[in-house]
Structures are given as C-alpha cells and as structure tokens.
Amino acid sequence: MEQIEVKLSHSQYPIFVGAGIWPQFGQVLKQFYQGNQIAVISNQTIWRLHGDKLESQLPAEAQKRVFFVPDGEKAKSFEHLQNLYSQLLENRFERGSLVIGFGGGVIGDLAGFVAATFLRGVHFVQYPTTLLAQVDSSIGGKVGINHSMGKNLIGAFKQPLFVFSDAALLQTLPDAEIRCGLGEVIKYGLSLDPELFEYLESHLPQALEKDEGVLNHLIRKSAQIKANIVMQDEKEANLRMVLNFGHTFGHALEADYQFSTLKHGEAVALGMKCALHFARLQGFLNKANYDRGLQLLNRMPIPFDAQQLNRERLVERMTLDKKVKGGKIRLVLIKAIGQHFFHTVEDVSLLKKAFEILEKDY
Ligand SMILES: NC(=O)c1ccc[n+]([C@@H]2O[C@H](COP(=O)([O-])OP(=O)(O)OC[C@H]3O[C@@H](n4cnc5c(N)ncnc54)[C@H](O)[C@@H]3O)[C@@H](O)[C@H]2O)c1
Ligand SMILES: [Zn+2]
To answer: What is the pTM of this model?
Structure first.
C-alpha cells in the first residue's frame, strides 16, 4: 500500500493506493477516526458488488448505517440530499460522526457535500470505486450537487480524513467507465507528464483490459499529479485550470450528445483531439508531438457518431461554458507532450476548424 500526502494550508491528508488493499481499510480507519457513528453513502449497484469488503472492515462497536441513493448522475440532486439529511437526523447522527462516500464520482461528490454541510460539517472519508473517481474526483476536495440550471453549481470544498483507492474494486467496472477514467489519465500525461504519457503508449491495451498492476500504476501516478496541482492551487485560482485540458471542447460535445451516448471521460478524450488539432492549426505544436498525441487517443475505442456533429452549435456551446472569462475563451493547449500553456482564443472560427479532426478519423 502506498501513501501520497496532500498538504494544504489548513489541513493534510493521505491518499492510500494499492491493488487488493481493502482488507486494510479497518486498520487505517482506526488511526483516523475514533468516533462511534458511521454513515456510509453508496448505491445498490456498488453495494451488491463490493459492500461486503467495506462492511467487514467497519468497527463492530460503532453505530453503522448504509444509506442508498439511486445509481447515476440524478443522485446529485436537492431531493436526494434532503433525503440523506432526514435519514441522518432520524438516526440521530451527531457532530462527531463520519460519512464514508463509497462509490464513483457521483457518490463522492454527494457524500462529500453531505459531510460538508450536515450539522455544519462532520468527518468524511473518500472510498472511490471507479477509475475516474480514483484518479480525479476523490482528490482536491471539490464536492457538490447539480442544479436544474447546470451541473455542479452547488457545492463546497471538503477535505477528507483520507482517500482509499483499491484497484481491485475496478474489476467489475463496465468498459465504458474504464475508458472514462483513462480519458482523464491521458489528460495528465499529455498536459503534465511525458513519462506517464510514454507509459500509456506502451500499456494502453492492458489498462483497457483492466490489468490490476497497470491500473494501480496509473492510479498512483495520477493521484500524485492531481495532488501536486491541488497543493499548488487549493481553491482553483489559476493552475487548476490545467485540469481542463480537453474539457472546453469535451463539455460542448458531452452536452451536444445529451449526456447520454457520450460519457464525460470519452468526451474529454475527443476534446483533447480537438485541442491538439487547434494547437497544430495555430502552429504551437510540431507534427511529431501532434501525431503521438492523436495516435494514443485514436487507440481509445470510443463509440461516437460523427454524422451528428454540428460544428456551429458546438462552438456556440463553448462560448456558454462557465470557464469563459470576459467574453473570451481560454483554452489549455500543449506545445509538446507534457507541456501545457494557456491560450486566449482570438479567432473563434479556428474552434470550428478544430472539431474537423473528429470527422476525419471516423
Ligand atoms: N469533485 C471533483 O473534483 C470531480 C471531478 C471529476 C468528476 N466529478 C464528478 O464525478 C461524477 C462522475 O463520476 P464517475 O465517472 O465515477 O461516475 P459514477 O459515479 O456515476 O459511476 C459510474 C458507474 O459505475 C458504477 N460503479 C461504481 N463503482 C463500480 C464498481 N467498482 N464496479 C461496477 N460498477 C461500479 C456506478 O454505480 C455508476 O453506474 C460526475 O458527477 C462529475 O461531476 C467530480
Ligand atoms: Zn473531467
């Protein structure tokens, strides 16, 4: 089991990473939480597959309850948030209690928001069970729910006591969810870490086949990278923007495909192709680096209907993205593998051209 420290201005916590470490959860928990009220928030899909692994590790003497929310993004709603508060109150959970978010990014975001706000804040543990949650959403403290006017608009920063990422739990993950997590891992490689990128070039097939050792390596590297970024920019003032590489294009695609046929990480993978193409069109990126980036992304099997692509509409969506400041779009681009920079878009017609890359490959 490896330990990565996240050191922030007012707190510090570890991320535990390993393959098959779930039997050590109880010991770790004992070090960080000595209270006696534990609320686990999860969903039935995850609980059916892995609930026993967590349940067997909870202290026998504590008051324990598992609260379920429906599977999927819809759980991040006011309705389910309120239900959870009611259940916690009915079960007399107090200020010293602990909330464990056991699931993917949806559960982590929702459980974290409950922990941040219930009785003005209780203890929190992130136990991520998807690749995306292990490499991305469980690190950084951003928690929250959706509003009818947009995703993630209501939220808080809530740092956990610790994060516990076991690659063994990913064996049951559907392929599309593995691809989603890998989209974010490729993002780290392309924008921040040439070594990680090289590793992906030689290990992508094993990762797609859920090789535990390979996944564990990717989780460890990614957790380290995200932790470094978060440590340097705790409250998302500037540097954290690098995490949006591929996302400005990706968010437009995700929305245009109605958040259904195209999943977030898959949309980000396509968005990164657009970002590479944009950088190439502007002369920021040489052909060798451009080709390497595209070749890796092309090896991701993403079900995507290029026939439906409407480039005018996509550019319109991009200008509506919340990351647009002062009317201008700021993009994260790369000038070489692992070397990002920020760029303000002056010529919007180039954005439209950038989407062409998605038509070429399919
Ligand atoms: N807080 C942040 O910084 C941050 C960053 C990125 C994304 N997010 C949020 O994360 C969410 C997406 O997270 P996600 O991609 O993990 O999706 P998710 O939480 O919906 O999980 C994906 C699916 O996998 C299932 N699942 C979970 N673990 C499983 C396992 N071990 N085996 C089999 N199935 C399993 C879930 O039930 C679900 O159906 C979004 O709401 C997004 O806004 C937050
Ligand atoms: Zn993302």
So the answer is: 0.96
